[in-house]
Design goal:
- With 433 residues, this protein is an alpha/beta fold.
- The chain is 35% helix and 15% strand.
- The protein is built from 12 helices and 18 strands.
- It has helices at 3-8, 21-34, 40-54, 102-105, 124-133, 146-154, 205-220, 225-245, 260-266, 270-283, 302-326, 392-403; strands at residues 12-13, 19-20, 57-63, 87-89, 96-98, 111-117, 164-167, 187-189, 288-293, 333-338, 342-343, 355-356, 360-365, 373-375, 377-378, 385-387, 410-412, 418-420.
- It has an 8-stranded mixed sheet, with helices on both faces.
């Protein structure tokens, strides 16, 4: 059987009409071995590949509001558009970033900067949805956010924690399970420094399980065809929640269990705690964790505000990369730093920068990404992409390549329309060579 056949074919139809590769590998390998089409070593190779894929994860560091490339990873010192921001050397000769990120500069050999991102969406809500799903919002289709896609495609069924966790204040238009269903919505944690709310049993375990059984029996009596799906979704949600709150893995949410020296490496603040928690969750089997940093919408006072925001992000971002590498997890964990768009090259009368989707930054590390490089460039003024433009579709193709997700997979919408995980674009091949 060809590798193309394995990559494109799915065998068992799921609830949403999706052929699942992991079910295919389990089922077809057994059947093919019985028919003599595969040797035992072939079956073991397939199973090994499946387990490696299941172990991959992604941490998204989301800079809500649209971070300025000039004050982050594409400084323009010496040009009037660069303002007061200076550039500093990194640990990779020839690569400079904004002086607001001295710690990240020391792990640049593990990171790759895309300086030529561009899109057409300059509205916060639309751009946020686009950079989370790969699709512009529409009234007819609820596209799943990429965290839901990852949970669906490579989530570890054995993990008793949610496959998709979002840490930080609510992110407008970040999306959820969409057409995949409510079971792929993120588990939202407002503050990393506090345990998840309502996750402690208020009674003994036996009584708790009796109550769940009673609820199941009551809901099974629903005979109205119109609400059966809602009942099924509700039951699945309760089952997932019950499994989670009774699991020993809930200890992953308790940062006090982390050694003091490790907590100091990440620094202080909610974003620092979120990065540390993200590492703990991925280590416990969670597939996708999003950590939010808010306040990057710098229409006024851009320079002092970005300096403060970078001060909250720099140390924990670098500590996360080092910590993942030290634990042998960076090779299987994709770390993404991005926001919904960039900021205008020209500084406005309020000392700020406005929305600008024509040129912005994304930084990637881990999970097959070759660090210590820059892809693309803007012109001298930072106004336009001058080299190697990268679209949002290209970016999502790159995510899929890194995480071994087949981007051509089609999920069925409620109206019977097949929707590909990524509808267009090509992976940024330079990142993998």
């Amino acid at each position: 059987m060809s590798s193309t056949f394995y990559r494109r074919t799915r065998v068992s139809m799921g609830r949403h009409g999706v052929w699942r590769r992991r079910d295919f590998l389990r089922g077809v390998s057994t059947a093919a071995m019985a028919a003599g089409a595969l040797s035992w070593s072939d079956v073991m190779a397939l199973e090994s590949a499946r387990l490696r894929q299941r172990g991959k994860a992604c941490i998204l560091l989301w800079m809500q509001g649209g971070p300025s490339p000039f004050e982050t990873f594409s400084p323009k010192p010496g040009h009037e558009n660069g303002g007061e921001t200076e550039a500093i050397n990194t640990n990779v000769p020839g690569i400079q970033i904004a002086d607001r990120f001295p710690e990240v500069a020391q792990v640049m050999d593990r990171l790759a900067i895309i300086r030529s991102m561009n899109s057409k969406e300059g509205n916060h809500q639309r751009a946020s949805f686009l950079l989370h799903t790969g699709y512009a919002p529409t009234a007819s289709v609820k596209h799943p956010t990429f965290g839901a896609i990852a949970a669906n495609e490579i989530g570890d069924a054995a993990c008793e924690l949610p496959a998709f966790v979002r840490i930080g204040r609510r992110i407008p238009n970040a999306g959820g399970g969409g057409l995949l269903g409510a079971e792929y919505d993120p588990f939202v944690l407002d503050r990393a420094t506090e345990p998840p709310a309502n996750t402690a049993l208020t009674t003994d375990d036996a009584r708790f399980r009796r109550r769940l059984g009673l609820l199941d029996r009551l809901e099974e009596q629903a005979d109205d065809e119109r609400i059966r799906q809602q009942v099924a979704d509700h039951q699945k949600l309760y089952q997932q929640t019950a499994k989670m709150i009774t699991s020993r893995d809930m200890q992953a949410f308790d940062l006090s269990r982390e050694p003091e020296n490790v907590r100091q490496q990440y620094g202080e603040g909610e974003f620092a705690a979120g990065c540390l928690l993200a590492r703990r969750l991925v280590e416990s089997g969670v597939t996708f964790v999003e950590v939010g940093s808010t306040g990057w919408d710098t229409h006024a006072d851009n320079f002092p505000r970005t300096k403060e925001l970078a001060g909250q992000v720099d140390q924990p971002y670098a500590a996360l990369i080092r910590d993942l590498e030290r634990r042998g997890m960076l090779d299987s964990t994709l770390v993404v730093w991005m926001g919904e768009f960039g900021r205008t090259p020209r500084i406005n009368p309020r000392g700020g920068r406005d929305h600008y989707p024509r040129a912005f930054n994304v930084v990637l590390g881990g999970c097959g990404i070759r660090g210590g490089q820059v892809v693309g460039a803007t012109d001298e003024s930072g106004a336009d992409v001058a080299e190697r433009p990268v679209t949002v579709h290209d970016l999502f193709q790159t995510f899929c390549t890194s995480l071994d997700i087949d981007s051509s997979i089609e999920n069925m919408s409620p109206i019977g329309r097949p929707i590909r995980i990524v509808e267009d674009g090509e992976p940024v091949s330079e990142l993998f060579s």
